Amino acid sequence: MKSIGLFSGYIYLFLGIITGIAANGFLKTTEGFTKLNPTFFCLISIIVCIFCLSKAMTVIPVGFTYATYGALTITAVTLFGIFKYNQTPNLYGTIGLVLIISGVIILNLFGKLK
Asked: What's this model's pTM, rounded to 2 decimal places?
């Protein structure tokens, strides 16, 4: 039964990541919350994101959940910025992203709770 709960936790985490990417990726299109439709989309997306993260945290430890969410959302929004807005990170930005992703992989593979 616990494995079913863990699986649902990761489903919620995945949904939180997707909606977090949507909310953050399209935030620029709100033009400082002056455009109604993109603002509404971003607000709904971030509310769903927070809800999904809170559900994931009932099963997955808080640190693991938020580290995974943060790293994957930061990376995806950076890629979104590259493709949609032609905002390419420099060498140091790229190294930073690689370190963020590496850190989360290490945390999820080898991190243990006491």
From this structure: 0.86
